[in-house]
Structure formats: structure tokens, C-alpha cells
Amino acid sequence: MSGVVDGRVVIVTGAGRGIGRAHALAFAAEGAKVVVNDIGAGLDGSATGESPAEQVVAEIVAAGGEAVVNGDDVADWAGAENLIRTAIDTYGRLDVLVNNAGFLRDRMLVGMSEQEWDAVVRVHLKGHFATLRHAAAYWRAEAKAGNPVDARIVNTSSGAGLQGSIGQGNYAAAKAGIAELTIQAAAELKNYGVTVNAIAPAARTRMTVGAGGAMAEAMAAPEEGFDAMAPENISPLVVWLGSVDSKDVSGRVFEVEGGKITVAEGWRHGPAQDKGARWEPKEIGPVVADLLAKAEDPVPVYGA
Ligand SMILES: NC(=O)c1ccc[n+]([C@@H]2O[C@H](COP(=O)([O-])OP(=O)(O)OC[C@H]3O[C@@H](n4cnc5c(N)ncnc54)[C@H](O)[C@@H]3O)[C@@H](O)[C@H]2O)c1
User: Fold this and answer.
1) Which of 77, 158, 186, 203 could crosslink 231 through cysteines, CB 3.0-4.6 Å?
2) Is 1 helix (H, G, I), strand (E, B) or coil?
3) Which residues lie across from 165 on neighbouring strands?
4) What is the CATH topology of the domain spanning 9-263?
5) Per-residue DSSP letter, 165
6) Nearest to 29 by CA among 51, 12, 52, 13
7) How far is the CA of 183 from the centre of ligand 1 (A)?
8) Which atom from ligand 1 is nearest to the alpha carbon of 16?
9) What would the DSSP string read from start to end of 189-202?
10) What is the pLDDT of residue 1?
11) For residue 56, what are the β-bridge partners?
């Protein structure tokens, strides 16, 4: 039986654990050749000496699939380039880039350090751009050489990035940036045969249950029935987005949790009033009150 991504060459970043691991296994099960990237970082990005990507590759190979390890840091410019090169050198091509790697350093904004800000924005936002940039250059060269390109990028945003999340200002800003980067890249890469979409997942991983508490309880696996918080629930959408069947879908962000897929409707022009001339500051109050009365209320910030 043929899989939905048979023979496609796929990179999944941060695929040693959690949601990325589920993606890598799901792509392999549907016939893809997978580059399993993971730096083996701790939950806060610190070095652990672990190599979870090797275990995932071993699992894929044991199940009869094809996979190779890559241990580069996705936010390192040369590392990201080497990651793209690993796919091309090993399998002769690249069809799908799934940007998923990242970590957290949660803190209220008022107490957040410069390092906490920089590390989280770097791994998520630059870690998406760096791989995207090198993959895009490869696909543009292929398209210009007359080789057919039917390529996909699937990014990973977050509910924190779409709605906000108390205590995660660095992460939320980076994930909001990733949602916009997705729209931007979809528009810029269209002519080279590349679609770009993003997901905002929710699943039980060390990232969501690591701290214990109410979140860990809400995410616990049920004793029987559908395990809605299993990370494996996130991957079918991502595998489909990586397939040739998703050709007409680009520049979209999907929230995905359990068996539920939601299209996120993002920034758009709302109610407006045009005076046709410059406003006086004292005129603005009632105008804004009128516009806000007509506008939809924002979705509440998580934890507010
Ligand atoms: N779990 C959720 O409910 C949830 C919700 C929203 C968004 N997300 C996002 O989904 C993605 C996966 O998260 P997860 O919950 O599976 O977390 P996880 O911690 O289980 O897995 C993340 C993996 O990324 C790797 N990694 C970290 N920095 C890296 C780097 N610089 N280069 C390469 N690999 C690196 C880690 O070693 C780890 O194996 C993340 O982008 C996360 O922000 C998760």
C-alpha cells in the first residue's frame, strides 16, 4: 500500500522528542525518507548530552523505514545550512521542511532577563527563518534549473503566539512572529512551487507537563478511550500538509488538538472610520469607542 508521502524527503527539526518525534514516525510510516534533527536540548535549551534523534532513527529503521540523524542547532546559520545539505547529500533532494524545534524560558515580562528573551526568540524565530532561508535557496535554484519543485514548509506556532499566554512573553512574541513569517514566506515562495503553512498544536509533552500542576492534570492520558492529548494526534495534519495533495493550501495557520482542526483567522482589517482629513486628538475618544463597539472582542489571553 502506498503512503501519502511516498518517496518524499522530509526534514523534521526537534524530532527527538514530543511532537517532532511523532511527526518523524508518522512521515516514515507514510513512506517518506526522514532527516531526524535534534540537538538533544533540555527543556530550557541547556545541553543534556542525550541524543534522542538517534533513538527515533533506530525506531524508524526497525519498522522498515528510512531515516538519518542530524544534530545541528536550527538557529545556527551554518548549522541550518548543514541540515538542509544533510537531506540533499543523503537522499538527493528535499521536499518538506517541518520546523518544530524549540524550548521555553518562562517568566513574567517584568522580571524577564535579556538572556531569557534572546534564547527563546533565537531558537523559535531565528530557528524557523534560518532553515527556511537555506531550504528556499535550494528550491529556488532547482526551479531556476527547470527541475520540478512541489515543496512544503510546515512551521510551528502556538496558541501563545496567536492569543498570548501569561508568563510566556518571549515565547508568545516569537510564535506570533512565526505565524506572520508563514504568511510572508507563502507569498514570497509561491512562484518557486513551495507552500508554507503553520500549526499551533496542543499535546502532552515535557513542554506542557514538565512543570506539573493543573496543565499536567488536564493533559493526562485517560485510562481508556481516545487519548486526546497524545502528540501523535498532531501529526496527520502535518503529514498531509507535507504531501503533494495539499498543493492549493498555503499561508494558513491551523490550531490542532486531539481530533480537532481549527483554521486560525488572524489579523485583518476590521471596522474603520475615515475623516478624509487629519484628526484632532480630542476627537479620537468617541471614534475609537464606536470602532471597538463594532469590532469583535479579542480572544482571551491564556492564563489571564
Ligand atoms: N506541546 C504543546 O502542547 C505545544 C503547544 C504549542 C506549541 N508547541 C510547539 O511544538 C514544538 C514541539 O514542542 P514539544 O512540546 O514536542 O517539545 P519537546 O521539548 O518535547 O521537544 C522539542 C525538541 O526540540 C529540540 N530542540 C530544542 N532546541 C533545539 C535546537 N536549537 N536545534 C534542534 N533541536 C532543538 C529538543 O531537544 C526537543 O527534543 C515546539 O516548537 C513548541 O513550542 C507545543
Assistant:
1) 203
2) coil
3) 302
4) Rossmann fold (3.40.50)
5) B
6) 12
7) 21
8) 39
9) HGGGTEEEEEEEEE
10) 61
11) none
- pTM above threshold 0.85: yes
CA–CA gap between residue 12 and residue 33 (Å, rounded): 11
The grid coordinates of residue 106 equal 518562562
CA atoms within 13 A on the CB side of 303: 13
Neighbours of 95 (CB within 10 A): 24
List the catalytic residue out of 33, 91, 126, 158: 158
Catalytic residue check, 302: no
Measuring CA to CA, which residue among 165, 15, 26 is closest to residue 99? 15
Nearest residue to 149 (alpha-carbon basis) of 9, 251, 49: 9
Alpha-carbon gap, residue 88 to 168, rounded angstroms: 36
Residue boundaries of the structural domains of the chain? 9-263
**Consecutive 10-residue runs of the chain (304 residues): their mean pLDDT?**
93 98 98 98 91 97 98 98 98 98 98 98 98 98 97 98 97 98 98 98 92 79 95 98 98 98 95 98 98 96 94
Chain center to CA of 269: 25
**Pseudo-torsion of CA 60, 81, 101, 116, nearest 10°?**
150
Do residues 135 and 97 make contact, with C-beta atoms less than 8 angstroms apart? yes
pLDDT in the model for residue 71: 97
Q: Distance between alpha carbon 213 and the CA centroid of its chain, in Å?
A: 25
Residue 201's alpha-carbon distances to 113, 139, 150, 256, in angstroms, are: 27, 27, 25, 5
DSSP H or E stretch at residue 151: strand 151-156
Separation CA 22–CA 206 (nearest Å):
14
Q: How far is the CA of 102 from the centre of ligand 1 (A)?
A: 4
- Kindly name the residue from 33, 138, 157, 175 that is annotated as catalytic: 175
pLDDT of res. 210: 72
CA of 81 to the centre of ligand 1 (A): 20
